[in-house]
Amino acid sequence: MFRTYLLPVEAALTLFPLIAALILGPAAIHGYRRRGRAGGWPVLVFYSFVFYLLAAVLQTVMPLPADTDAHCATIRYAESPQLQPFAFHARIASAAGGDWSVSTLAGLGSTWTTLLNAMLLLPLGVYLRYYFRQRLLPATVVALATSLFFETTQYTGLWFVYACPYRQFNVDDLSLNTAGAVAGWLIAGPLARLLPANNPDRERTRYGHRVTLTRRALAFLTDLAGWLVIWTLTTGLLAVGTDWTTGRRYALTAGAVLGLVWFWLLPVLFATTPGKRAVLLRLARPDGSRPGFWRITARAWTRYSPLALAWLAIAHHNGTLTLPDPAGAVLPYAALLAAVVVWGSPPLVVMIRRDRRAWYERWFDIVNHPTADMSSRSPARTPIPAGRVEIPAPAPAPSRRADSVETATAQDPDCSP
User: Do residues 135 and 253 share a domain?
Assistant: First the structure.
């Protein structure tokens, strides 16, 4: 019997790395926007929740019938829903034969099925209270809706993928799942005292002003991904609206025009890019003032010169653009060299230079600053129970290390302790 319950867990272990890789970028962006950083204890809790949710869903739908026709012809118990509440009690009593001793109950499959149904959403209750900070009533509603989704998924044969329902809709499962989630919510109270505090506002105040290398890299990769997605959609629609030959002819031109808008025009107009805005960064002078047109232009053309050279090399290779023979042959190597010099410098200066500014940032005197809506947020105050008087805690004395870190950050927002 337990092999049936372990099979979905094994499938979850196999699928989890792929799902984690797919949501890595969006989860990191959400972390920077909500907590000021993409790492730490909350990230481990989040990915454990993703794994749990995956395992719970697979526990609901697996094992799948191998032969649908044979299953639908021979297995009929799931065609009618079980709508009698607390039928599990009569089922256990019948199997136990009136013997309610622990040893007898432990040997019954119906007992373990009932317990596992109650345990299925118990972790959900813990997550809803500890990680999502939900009160009891909203958590109960979410648990009931989740259980209802599971039951209807089973009764519809995986939403009509199969010709018949292969598991029964059982009202007892609804009550047991929801009761388990409520028990998990109650357990989360004392459990939270043993775990690190989950306070996104406090983390945002502590980490939001830091402009780390990983934060900048995520903004850069988000910009590249967004540009590529919009370019492929644009050229695809162009090919569908005209013909394949026209779409191919103008594909690289459309990408170049979109790249100018994405990487140059938007920073000139708004002092930020979509990727930087996603992680709450903006371009500014070291004193926080807005840089001028020529500074942003020079930085943009230097920063994305490897991409421009690679684009020219591709255009020369497929015949869209004809260049003199030596230039066309050298372009791929020039693009690679530019990528090493321009894109490889930020990781190196983190280890070498104290100000942690790349050479082109020093030349054009432009750095990355956290946006105002990140740095100006203050942590939400916890309500004080009636009858208690709040005594403000004394401010801690600044340490020499803290003084040096704040001084370095004030001089250069790219400095990340």
Answer: no
SS3 string of the chain?
CHHHHHHHHHHHHHHHHHHHHHHHHHHHHHHHHHHCCCCCHHHHHHHHHHHHHHHHHHHHHCCCCCCHHHHHHHCCHHHCCECCCCHHHHHHHHHHCCCCCHHHHHCCHHHHHHHHHHHHCHHHHHHHHHCCCCCHHHHHHHHHHHHHHHHHHHHCHHHHCCCCCCCCCEHHHHHHHHHHHHHHHHHHHHHHCCCCCCCHHHHHHHHCCCCCHHHHHHHHHHHHHHHHHHHHHHHHHHHHHCCHHHHHHHHHHHHHHHHHHHHHHHHHHHCCCHHHHHCCEEEECCCCCCCCHHHHHHHHHHHCHHHHHHHHHHHHHCCCCCCCHHHHHHHHHHHHHHHHHHHCHHHHHHHHCCCCCCHHHHHHCCEEEECHHHHCCCCCCCCCCCCCCCCCCCCCCCCHHHHHHHHHHHHCCCCCC
What does pTM read for this prediction?
0.74
Write the pLDDT tens digit of every residue in 150-194. Answer: 988 888 878 877 777 778 888 999 999 999 999 999 999 999 889
Reported as a single tens digit per residue, the pLDDT across 364-374 is: 999 999 986 55
Structural domain ending residue among the three candidates 202, 232, 264:
202
Read off the pLDDT of each residue in 404-416 and give the average, rounded to a whole number: 38
Answer with the one of 167, 202, 237 that is the final residue of a domain: 202
Residue 124 sits in the same domain as residue 104: yes
Range of the domain at 247: 208-380+398-411
